[in-house]
Description:
One of its GO terms (cellular component) is ribonucleoside-diphosphate reductase complex. With 719 residues, the chain is an alpha/beta fold. Among the domains are: 173-298 and 341-404, Anaerobic Ribonucleotide-triphosphate Reductase Large Chain (Alpha-Beta Barrel), CATH 3.20.70.20; 410-596 and 633-651, Anaerobic Ribonucleotide-triphosphate Reductase Large Chain (Alpha-Beta Barrel), CATH 3.20.70.20. 41% of the residues lie in helices and 12% in strands. The two termini are 33 Å apart.
Amino acid sequence: MAISKIKDPTYFKLNNKINIPDHGKIPLQYDHKAIEAFFEENVKPNLKWFPTLKEKLNYLTDHKYIEKDFLARYQLPFINKLFNYVYDADFKFKSFMAAYKFFKQYALKTNDNEYYLETFEDRVAFNALYLAEGDEQLAILLADEMIHQRYQPATPTFLNAGRARRGEFVSCFLVQLTDDMNSIGRGINSALQLSRIGGGVGINLSNLREAGAPIKGYANAASGVLPVMKLFEDSFSYSNQLGQRQGAGVVYLNIFHPDIVDFLSAKKENADEKIRVKTLSLGVIVPDKFYELARKDEEMYLFSPRDVELEYGVPFSYVDLTQEYDKLVANPKIQKATIKARDLETEISKLQQESGYPYIINVDTANRSNPIDGKIVMSNLCSEIMQVQTPSVLNNDQTYQELGRDVSCNLGSTNIPNLMKAKNFGKSIETMVRALTFVTDNSNIDTVPSIVKGNRLAHSIGLGAMGLHTFLAQNQIMYGSEESVEFTGTYFLLLNYWTLKASNKIAKERSETFADFEKSDYANGKYFDKYLEQDFMPKSAKVKQLFHGIFIPTKKDWQKLKNEIMQDGLYHQNRLAVAPTGSISYINDTSASLQPIIQRIEERQEKKIGKIYYPAAGLNNETLPYYVSAYDLDMRKMIDVYAAATEHTDQGISMTLFLRSRIPRGLYEWKNEREQTTRDLSILRNYAFYKGLKSIYYVRTFTDDGDVVGANQCESCII
């Protein structure tokens, strides 16, 4: 039999039955029957079988399915030992969706896509061997973390590790433009190249002069950012990874840019086709000053980026607009326009209701907590990567007069429910950091030199987390409660502590730190002040019990770590970032990222298949009351949870807001009417800002007819 020859399978029908209540109960047993049927009818008949592992490896390497070089780093007896280890773990998929997603999207198949060449255990083994680079002990540790689903590499890594014909291991990229045609041309080439290899691309347009600005003395010559946006949209559409997936990008613009209203209008459904962008995502860079002006209901000034650059000698993005605002207003050399701050805030809310865009980057918040010398000026496709960049200076032939620094994202995720069961929390984290370090050390995107330079100097990684709601429900804690906030803060404190320990250990082993470590707040010790001045130990009995037996660092431990880092440094410039988790969270049988679930029985529309249903992980009579939909949750409670994690996260956290078009009565005290209004979104954005969140990724609105407005279709950057 071949996969395409399967006729009338029973597993989809069995899975669909879980959405039909049986005497008022959810018949979860049908999902387990669907798993069994899927393996009997689909996997087992179409999985190529080999008498021995040696024969299997010979077949895979001879037919150029798997690389030879990484296997050659190990002796065959050890490879046998590792494969036996992962199979002896007796891994089982816990939902039909998990099994279906793995074999459809991740399992290696024959060239004609008709037969499977690997199981989940095989994919874990190949990842462990590849990422360990010949280190047998590390390979076993990595296999242990992945087969027990405590650690999940990002999709590009997990999918491609070991494959002979593969894409890159990294998830996404950040690139900035400066105000000249050479930079625009180079940026478009970068977008084409980066989209081709599989990552989502963030582009910062804030430095470009506005529409109508002069060029070399010619008045009203500049076309502004909108035509450049269209060029990028067409580039991503053209460079679509051999037709397998739509290229994806986000363009960012500072809220004080004169083109900001036109920028937002380009995403409206009724926008003129000449300016409308359909597939490009939009993000707005928001300094603190905007929130102040909106709060005071004042006019705000929009400044010509070219004039600001001429006055300050650096691109517009690198000027602290909050600090320099009054000087910019008073400077007659700087062309400026005005708009009511609240009118602009309303326009943002209207567009978020209509499309889910724009993303919001609270850039001053990000820079205040940034321990690295330099300036954060933008983010990525999912708004969680926040790293310093420097602009490039280009010659007329588009060679580099001065090569700047841009960003690639090396991501992975902890599975909270499973990691909380780990025998050695710290050892698990160190193993994960070493896996991510392999990715950053071996990433070489040579088509975009600024990306190569940034990665080579920073060695940055982004370890995150998924399964928060699952863990809370399993432990009968309401999402958004004080206990949930306290647990989240403690968990991320541990991630912070142990990634610092691991990065310091690697720096010692290699006698190497990230570039300009000596200029960072790690080197001068300032970063550790809050851990030495505040007590972050759990307070409630419930949270203390959850962390029973797990080491939590005291002030004394933080002081010791501070001394070690000041002496020997850190290998990684950045360590933590929480990305969205898409299909991979189903395979891990856990809730996505840090967000609440959407439905207890989630409905997914699969192309050519129809609907597949996914019951929330661990759903039963005990957990049912604790699985409240995000659409029925006060979003301020969710923001409180994310704020607790942000406190200990050196980069950002991708956070989506969820609202119904008709909001449940009593959910928000300021509402008399039930219809969602622009005021609701404005209040929530401001609440997120005052709670210290660095970004808002997306806004999703659930309508009365069961549709979702602003359902982001891009999966280029998610884990």
